[in-house]
Amino acid sequence: MTENVREAAAMQPPLRRHQDEALATLRDGSAADERRSWIVLPPGAGKTRVGIDYATHLLDRKLVERVVAFGPNTAIQGQWAKEWNRLGEGRPPAGGTRELTQTFTALTYQSLAVFDTERETVDREDDTRTTDRDLEDRVTDSPASGPGGDLLDSLATGGRALVDNLVSGGRTLLILDECHHLLEVWGRLLADLMALLPDVWVLGLTATPPATMSTRHRELVADLFSSVRYSASIPALVREGDLVPFADLVWVTEPTREEQDWLSAQAERHTEFITGILDPGQGTIGLLEWVDRRFLGDRAESVDWQTMSRQRPELCDAALRLHHAALLRLPPGARLGEQHRRDPDTDDWARLIEDWMQHLLLVSDSASDQDLAEEIRRRLPAIGCRWTRHGIAAGRSPTDRVLSHSASKPRACVDIAAVEAATLGDHLRMLVLCDFESATATLAADVRAVLDERSESALLTLESLAADSQTAHLNPLLVSGRIVAGPPDVLRALIDFIAGDDAELAARLSVTDPVAGVSRIDGRWTSRD
Questions:
Q1: Helix (H, G, I), strand (E, B), or coil: what is residue 405?
Q2: 287, 278 contact by CB (below 8 A)
Q3: Which member of 104, 118, 138, 240 has the greatest number of CB atoms within 10 A?
């Protein structure tokens, strides 16, 4: 060990108990040539430290020649590179490109999952917007991704070059951080890659216990990493003093008076919709008559309730709630459970109407039935549903949108921050997570009169915090992948702070004129900066 390596090792903070136990398990596994491992540690428990110490162990024993760490976004990619440079025992600094020229390289999963079918959106290593669902949607139609197909054949030039470099680069340890992300396409792609790397060492790291995954996803991850080698729970680490105890609290908000008036009117519209549907004159056979025939039968047809309840359990539950509302006699053989002792809700009505439409209105020769089906299709969005080729599907109703985007929420954020600041003073550290940074689409006409288009956005929340005298002194700051915003004096202080670490970057930055008390940082920077 050279002098600088000794110095680097001496500067490393001591391992915590659970980290030491996890590493001991991994070292024992490497001695037994167990090349696939899966470690489960809670957030904040030091998964990165475990991964880097395991990597140096394999490198020291010449079991691998290089290490490639994958993460789901550029923030985690940067974290791995930074920690390697700090803890890598004097070895060369981390690399971050597909060329894999360094001993240790940190990349995103997207740097591998670059498909010809999606070039326009993910053929950039620093793109963090693509989800596994996006990949699933975009690759599904590719011939190579069909049954028996190899996803590696669908890779674009950048992804294929990375595969080639992995195959030709010698013995490798792949660290797959946040490996619970490896579902569907990403997981299948890595399984195909590992088939090309029979001698590869693999370490999966996650905070998500297998018990919380679906059976299919659990099997996929187990195929990639084998069994869990070591696991530690949040309560155990709190007891050890390695994690701070915490509590989940809820601050309940109520809609504003204007929103409540709108919601009351919307409830009336919903009632009118259901009442209109129940009119016996609607359709050649009305909905309630159809339900009677469907669940009670007639002299020419008997209903086997047990068979129907196995085949259509949700529809049968809806029918029993209809019985509770005194709109249907109890079907022969049915028993009312506690879950049925309430009136039908929107989902129940949707299932009953769907059955009526599919088996009567849409297959009827009557033009009036066809017209009624079309009218119902048009009106379904008003109650949060939509018609698809598979029937009625739940959607987001105007009521849902008004409740989730209520103007009371930014006000509540200000109130919470003020209370915490009064209690904690200078010790306060607060992170506010919002649904989105700023509105990207206009509101639907049916809610535009009651909602601000920017409701639930980070920018509106920032403006609320910056404008209120109780919270303005906390220097609120918004940081996203595209925007850094805040009061002008806060942004100027931030640029001065950046200059202490990166004068060149700071020189490229400037503060825009404020709008509603909030400015933005202008200049050439990326989310990695």
A1: coil
A2: yes
A3: 104
From CA 155, how far away is CA 151, in angstroms rounded?
7
Phi, psi of 518 (to 5 degrees): -125, 130
What's the pTM? 0.57
Give the pLDDT band (50/70/90) at residue 184: low
Q: What is the DSSP letter of 44?
A: T
Which of 121, 128, 80 has the alpha carbon at shortest distance from 104? 80
User: What Å distances lie between residue 132 and 72, 129, 137, 208, CA to CA?
Assistant: 10, 10, 9, 17
The pair of three-digit structure tokens given for residue 325, joined into one six-digit string: 């509302």
The torsion of the CA quartet 453, 458, 464, 467, rounded to 10 degrees, works out to -120
In whole angstroms, what separates CA 345 from the centre of its chain?
28
Q: Report how far residue 463's alpha carbon sits from residue 473's, in angstroms, rounded to the nearest whole number.
A: 13
Q: What is the pLDDT of residues 261-275, one digit of tens each?
A: 988 988 888 888 888
pLDDT digits (tens, 9 = 90+) for 430-441: 999 988 888 766
Report how far residue 281's alpha carbon sits from residue 278's, in angstroms, rounded to the nearest whole number: 8
Boundaries of every domain in the chain? 3-240, 257-392, 402-522
Contacts of 158 (CB under 8 A, 6+ apart): 98, 111, 114, 123, 125
Secondary structure tally for the chain: helices H, strands E: 22, 12
